[in-house]
Amino acid sequence: MKRVLLSTAFLLALAAGTAAQGTGSATKPSAMDHGAMNGAPTAGQAQNASSKAMMDVNDRMQAAMGEGMTGDADMDFARGMIAHHRGAIDMAKIELEYGKDPELRALAETIIRDQEAEIQQMQAWVDRKGG
After folding, report:
1. Which residue of 22, 42, 45, 68 has the fewest C-beta atoms within 10 A of its own C-beta?
2. How many CB atoms are located within 10 Å of the residue 20 CB?
3. pTM to 2 decimals?
């Protein structure tokens, strides 16, 4: 599991670096980079911003998932999944902010709706169990 997460983080970092090397950088746009001239983010800058946002969400989610392990499998599962679902919701919100594909945007909206409901269910269980 840790290896998959590290691989994902590496790929996200690689994508962010590749995007930043595109037609221009945030500090020196290329001659054809007209979007940067009027203050609008270029495609490379938008990709870099979305990749950074995804990496930030992933870092917060990973930290939260590992917090306060109790040794009780049920409690650890519920608390870890709450953090995981919050991360998924935050990632879905990034998709809605930056993404263009209608299918993925619709999926992001479904993820937000469904996982908010699951968080409520798990949080109610945690609260009932005194966790």
Report:
1. 68
2. 16
3. 0.65
